[in-house]
Amino acid sequence: MTETSMDCSDQNSNDERLAVLLAMANELARAESPEQVLAPLLTRIMQLLNCQMFVFYLVDSDDRLQLQACAGIDNEHTQPLQCIGADADLAKILQVEASVAQPLQSWRSNQQGQSGLGMLWFGSRSHKTFADNELSLLRIAATQIEAALERKGALHDLQLVNQALQSKEQELEVALRKPNQTTETIPDSVSGLLMLDKDWRYTFFSEAGARMVGMRREDLLGKCAWDLLPHAKGTLFYDSLHRAMASGDNTHFENYFPEPLNMWLSCHCYPTPEGLTVYFHNINARKQTEDALSQSEQRYRHLFESMDEGFCIIKMLFDEQQRPVDYCFVEANPAFEKHTGLQAPDGKWVSELIPDLDESYVQLYGKVVLTGDSIRIENHVPVMNRWFDCFAFRTGKPEDMTVALLFSDITVRKNTEQALNKSRAELRTTISSMTDAVFSADADGRYINFNDAFARFHKFKTTKECLTMFAEHPDFLEACFPDGSPVPAEMWAMPRALRGETGTEEYILRRRDTDETWIASYSFGPSRDKAGNIVGAVVTARDITEQRRRARNDAFLAKIGVELATLSSVDDLVNALGTSIGTYLKVQSVTFSEIDMDANTLTVNYNWRPEGPRNLNRTFPLSDFFYNQTGKEHQPDEVVVIPDVEKDPIRNAETHAALELRAILAVPSQTKDNKRAFFSSVTSNCVTGGRTRSKCSRISPAECSRAWSERRPKPRSERAMPCSARPISAKTNFSPYFLMNCATRLPPSALASSC
Questions:
Q1: Distance (Å, rounded) from C-alpha 658 to C-alpha 464?
Q2: The CATH number of the domain where 217 resides is what?
Q3: Is position 466 within any domain?
Q4: Residue 748: inside a domain
Q5: Do 58 and 88 meet the contact criterion of CB atoms below 8 Å apart?
Q6: Domain boundary, last residue among 287, 313, 334
Q7: What is the dihedral of CA 207, 213, 214, 216, to 10 degrees?
Q8: Residues of the chain with pLDDT > 90: what percent?
Q9: CATH code for the domain of 39
């Protein structure tokens, strides 16, 4: 999910950058004065760079920077910035944390090399590092601005040159048409004028023209042109002059002359009775301008035609109430046809191409024209059965009513997302139904997803109470290895998975706030992106406290079963059983008693203590220990737990004090005549913890029965046996519950062995 979101965000940013560059190229190509349209375009770039201010300067004739446009700067600082030196520190003046400057260079070289046109500067009030794609955006924007400024300057120069040439051509034509015109009467100030006779010898060459071609006039006059210019034979210059001489028609052509001239010349040929008059002038500057214009157009055209995204410019049509009713395609790139399937849309109305198109699109693009606000939408077009991601922005002058659309076909992505969302929903349903805790985190340990079992595992009532990141866990949980040693935070499952480890680990956990303790089994592993980089982790956890307790109890019962199988006397049986239970549960007494429900009495038959077994054969009122007068209502298999007899309102504290008892656990069995009997009870002379840390464990009744009844001495008469042995051995159907830990509060390290 995170990866998909990141991919979509990057794609959106790329699309917006491309849209801004296309809008800039389109606006600058149409604008007579680039400075007038740059402010809103540079504001868009400022936003894409996550900056809060920008300034745009042009270099004046004194090589100082003149402010052309700015944004995000208060009036107090704007006035001092109107004209500054090239070495001014804008970051210091405007007190910004980060800034980037991009110089604007002239494409035409002078004697000192490239000259500066101006500068773009963007500033951020907060610290930031400009990414490569941001710097690339700035460089491309600067290139487009340079081209536009060069084009403007070149067009201005070209206009001046053309005006001067027209004036000189008119002057020359007037001079040439005068009767009895001779070379002596032609102004020498006319640059680039030569005359040839029928044999192609120079009869006149202006001083300015000679300097232009790098020769002396006296070295040219009377010489044959083709002897001086042998490399010109077969060129456009050679052919055009011969054609004009032969036909008698005026001719104009432009040609590049290589070494030694290395220049473009524009030539006007006027046939005369004496030969040919040629007026020529250097058009290098104009050709450079045209090349610059061509390069700018080629860049735009290459971007326009090679981009994968569809791009088109549409012109909106409004009715008399200024409501948008239709739009016409002005221009579209090849990708437009690929994505939409519309062939040759230029000049056609959308109502003609897509008659059933939803009218909301016309309204939406009309709003862009009227407000100037850009919009981005993702929409499904049913008539095409395709999904489009479209970025729309106004282009040209407001009165042009034109909108640029940059879009891509995201049908595959949308279908993939829908399938992915369906799979995720199914996965969430599956995970939610799991009893194991499942949770995932990003690379910083922030939880992304977790199921309801995650809350139950950590002893929370609802998922709203759960922690949001792993860093909070050490303050909330205490973790120990099975041997009781503490687990360092970096060795918990989540950090290990984020380091690339995969495995299974078992910890003993304790909540620091509630003191609840449990045993957990973790399985963990890292999440990786397509490049194999770790972007997060997935962990599953299971509470195995009951599983571990049962395993230990089963092992304990199996052990005592083997031990009891070798004994024959009741005293040995009771002593061995009491020793095993007492040691296992860490208590001070294990008692074997018989209850007479009719008499409401309890008779203690045997009592084990660490110092040795005691055969008490004492009878007590039942209410002194386990029941009050409603004791008959207890279920036959109910386990009785008394954490503190002194605080129990229905217990006889004096009786228990005489027996040095403070806490009791009793496990009952059911006799055949429906009389209750307690198979065993364990007692402690210490108060148990406020929370019992373990639960009853199920065991096979046959184990208890065999340990008690099968091994009783059969040759002895019932009369010779203790009274309690006869009913217990002959009539008991043992309860499936046997043990419960009621010892004093234990540290986490003792939990595994004491459960």
A1: 51
A2: 3.30.450.20
A3: yes
A4: yes
A5: no
A6: 287
A7: -40
A8: 16
A9: 3.30.450.40
